[in-house]
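For this section, I looked closely at the sequence of one protein beside the tokens encoding its backbone, which the following lines show:
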Amino acid sequence: MSVLEPNLEDAVADLDQTLTLPLLPLRSGAVLPGMVFTLALESAEAQAAAEAAGVSRIAPGSTPGAAAGADAHRPAGSDAHRPAGSDAHRPAGSDAHRPAGSDASPRPTDAEAGASGRLVLVPHVDGRYAKVGVVADVLEVGQLPGGVLGMVVRGRRRVTIGTAVPGTSRALWVQVEAVVEPPPTPEVVALAREYRAVLENILLSRGAERIAERLRDVTDPSAISDVAGYSPDLDLQQKVQVLETVDLEQRLRLVLGWAREVLGDLTLRQQIKSSVEEGMERTQREFLLRRQLDAIRKELSEIDGGADEGGAAGYRRRAEAADLPDGVRQAVTREIDKLERTGEQNPEHGWIRSWLDTVLELPWGVESEDRLDVAEAARILDEDHDGLDEVKERIIEHLAVRKLQTERGLVPVDGRGAGAILALVGPPGVGKTSLGESVARALGRRFVRVALGGVRDEAEIRGHRRTYVGAQPGRLVRALREAGTINPVILLDEVDKVGADHRGDPSSALLEVLDPAQNHTFRDHYLEVELDLSRVLFLATANVLDTIPGPLLDRLEVVHLDGYTEEEKVAIARDHLLPRLRQQAGLQPGEVGLSDEALRKVVGDYTREAGVRALQRELGRLLRKVATAFASGSARAPLAVDAGDVRRWLGRPRVLWERAAASAVAGVATGLAVTGAGGDVLSVEATAMDGPPGLTITGQLGDVMRESAEIALSYVRSHAPHLGITADAFERARFHVHVPAGAVPKDGPSAGITITTALVSLLLDRAVRPEVAMTGEVTLQGRVLPIGGVKQKVLAAHRAGITEVVLPAANGPDLEDVPDSVRSQMTFHLASEVGQVLHAALADTSTATAPAPAAEPGQAA
């Protein structure tokens, strides 16, 4: 072995100036400063560079790098595998500096002699030389296995490659200039520390603890960054990029990002491996534990003569303790026998146990005792709700029937119950859901709410068949299990919003549930046993009846909740809403009080609804502002809020009633309608213009309402002489009827007389009295037909401040449903034909036939 021992201090000092050194291209690897590599000198370029560095003048000895394990440091695919004599990648023009016929090895010049033991290593990738190379010292030379000459080199410092210079040897000589690195900054030191930590984690993950320990001895940030040259996770392009990155901070950030990615991959692989191993161990451990548990249970059952609750014997004990009907007991016994014959590894074993658990958890024979005190039940209903007399009366009737049946020992015929299936229909916020809770409290029963809004799957009602994966009983069975009794009060909420699609029609499934003649033998698809629902008190809620299918509606006893009057809202706010909202705002009962006038101001100027939901929000907002004033010290308790103080707390009024639009303008009439939010007041506008004869209708109206407008115009045209309208009024006139709030869909025949009145008012140029509103269907002969929703429409007119209402004569009996406090403040005109309507609406007209005299307040004309 021959070893070169150059003067390292002189060498490093020489690198601080421009030098001329032989170039050795690396086509399959890259050497960074500080790295020690073994290179095989097979190619002509490698041999020429080694000869120029003085290697050929030293007799080859034993295998180079034997002490350092040189073969371990050789880059994959180094120049040892390159065909000898390949000049294809030599820089252009390099042969110009080489004398012709210089195949021999002449004596080096003075410049060449100064390069003894040193050369510059430059990667040659994709047909180009890297811009930066490394000055390397030749540490050792010798023969590699196979007789090939090789040498061990150590990278010293980065240099930038300059121009080629002439030489007398075969090697390519280039000028190089050392790269000067500034002192490391704190940021560089921090990046180097983090990169070292990441590298240590990578090495520890791969089991290289000794290398990780030696890595701690490297303290220079530049040396730390160049350790990336040894990484097997970086390809040649990445290593060349590290070599060419002169700025130390950028180099550290570059290698740190790659190291983080490698560490992330290693961590993820380790986690996956650990999860798989833990899963396998847990599965094996669970299997062994279960086998041991089965053996223990078997031994205990043999000793005690019993069995665990999850076995067949446990289910038999539970079945014997339950008060099961005969048919249900037979089905349970059959399933328990099947459970004994089915092994635990069989999937059907779990299905049978789930079915048995569901059946045995149902409250078979568990019935809550009804509170049969009619007076106490009435007191509870009055305590929870103001108004709603019709609903309370119906509940009291049901309770009275139950009381008489119990006292006289009468039993339902054929097992059928009382058949009380009430449907509470009304706008939002009138208390339909809370009324169901009050009914349950008055009767002393459990209360369960089943939300049906948006349900489209029939299996939600009847349950899934047991053959489906994840099968479960329907919502009614689950409601009974939740209630814990067989006779709870079940509220079917939003029954008008049940949908239908390819999965079935839930409303059709409700036909059996809500039929008193059938629900005592209700059969759920999951249970497949008869379930008696006749003792359940069903209450259904809906906003409108139009979307409820006819057969389902026929099984319901409809009770209308048409909304509250202003006085009822004031009483509800005072007795029910304020105490609860005061507590939610953190206020004591005596700290703030609202007078009835203030509550009436909130009801009239800040809410516009049939219920009290918006009223609750406004009162809550007012109390929160009062609480804020108390907390900030701007107000002190006790605080009394009167009508004049409401604007201070709630701001400007937010409700502008529609009747204000019905000013003294011809062609505008006020109508009454029923929407999903209760009764409402709307205006109808009519105008005429020059153009082709015809009718334009706007306002997002339905087909029925459009037909009402066409019928009204036809009636006015055909009865023009009788109405006092000249014939030329229709010549070259195009009429336009519009119902404001065009974004709100509207439909129904009850706007017929309103549209007719607007057209007559336009053609006669006489305004409609603003205190008059009307509703009713009109025919081509001028007859006024009855309509629905009288109570809701009258209440809406009363809320809007209207004092006179025109109704069809056939709707006269419906006025008995209107509260006395409202009827006493309003005048009603009952009309059977359009002439009577015009007489009440157009006070100055003389064209109405057989006008009906205006009634006194609170009476019907």
